[in-house]
Amino acid sequence: MKFSTKAEYGLRAMVTLAKDYPYLKSITEISQEEHISAKYLEQIFIKLKSAKIVLSQKGKSGGYTLAKEPPNITVGEIVEILEGKIEPKKCLSAECKNSQCASKKVWVKLSQEIKKTLDNIKLSDLIPDPPLLSKEKDKRKLESV
Amino acid sequence: MKFSTKAEYGLRAMVTLAKDYPYLKSITEISQEEHISAKYLEQIFIKLKSAKIVLSQKGKSGGYTLAKEPPNITVGEIVEILEGKIEPKKCLSAECKNSQCASKKVWVKLSQEIKKTLDNIKLSDLIPDPPLLSKEKDKRKLESV
DNA sequence: CTTAAAGCATAGTAAAATAGTATGAATAGA
DNA sequence: TCTATTCATACTATTTTACTATGCTTTAAG
After folding, report:
1. Rounded distance, CA B7 to CA B82, Å?
2. Which residue pairs from A132-139 have beta carbons closer than 8 angstroms and sit at least 24 positions apart in sequence?
3. What's the distance, CA B67 to chain centroid?
4. Which of B11, B93, B117 has the CB atom closest to A103's CB atom?
5. Band of residue A94 on the pLDDT scale cut at 50, 70, 90
6. Residue A78: CB partners within 8 Å, gap ≥ 6?
7. What is residue B140's predicted lDDT score, i.e. its pLDDT?
8. How far apart are CA A68 and CA A124, in angstroms?
9. A79 lies within 8 A of chain B by CB
10. What is the pTM of this model?
């Protein structure tokens, strides 16, 4: 009963983006801050990008930033993008077909509770300190944000 | 984010024992009822046995039965025996060491919620119909129960 | 206008976990 | 004594995970 490193790394990466929101941050920077393989992070960000939860700028001095403000992004969204839907197991027992399966009830209930818990945590809840505003002029921002 | 088949099969097996409680049921019988590999079920029952959540009788016409009454066994117990403790991920980020790690909070909270949910479901909650009392004389019972 | 640094995309791969099988011993009822 | 059962360990094929490798595209800086 474990989440994969994709969810773990992805969440940590999103937290680092939240701290710098709305400024751009490159995979190289995130990789160094969080000690996560840059190439692996690239794969994670391809998923986050195609789910439209982050925006990107290509080319030199490019990077990523959140597509929404930190209070409007939930941990549930991030985990679902990276781990897939939290679905109850398919049960092969005969009972299951006439929807009387006992154990299935457990997995349905559990999936609901997990989703509820994760959907209730906002990215902004995970940022410990307010962002420093001192070096803002050095930071890169997307035109659209 | 999935439970293994061990938890799934183990739970279904425990439900079938609950339905027949306190009578003995062999792995062969459970295997046929639930369409689960008998050899795989054996491994599952070795764990359940050593956790003392089931009782067994060896030899011909032997089998298993619950060690406690169905209302006194929770799904949480069963899952923990078969999947191990539901522990939050270890996080390798630098922040994590000074216990300020943002993402760790998520996994701690989630583990607690999963445990709470599963501990709150009793085996007796999963038995759809009351047991038939008609053929009781054919059934095998442990001396101690 | 060239180049370096970034994102984007797919393919490959080593290690670990999963979901079983196989083999055989110990036990006990018929 | 035979057979059906639990008990225990070892083996194995498949799948998943957690990466790495390769190479293309894009774009700001020099």
Report:
1. 6
2. A136/A23, A139/A20, A139/A23, A139/A24
3. 12
4. B11
5. very low
6. A7, A10, A11, A14, A48, A53, A123
7. 78
8. 11
9. yes
10. 0.88
What's the rounded Cα separation, in Å, for the pair B120 and B106? 21
- B11: nearest Cα among B88, B70, B61: B70
Chain A hits for B126, CB-CB cut-off 8 Å, are 102-103, 105-106
User: Integer distance in angstroms from CA B113 to C1' C14?
Assistant: 35
B chain contacts of residue A35, beta-carbon cutoff 8 Å: 92-94
pLDDT at residue A144 greater than cutoff 70:
no
Q: What SS3 class is residue A60? A: coil
| Burial tier of A2 (Cβ tally within 10 Å: 0-12, 13-18, 19+) | middle
- Continuous H helices in chain A: 5-20, 27-34, 38-50, 75-83, 94-97, 102-119
- Cα distances (angstroms) measured from residue B12 to each of A17, B17, B71, B128: 44, 9, 16, 13
Give the pLDDT score at B91.
54
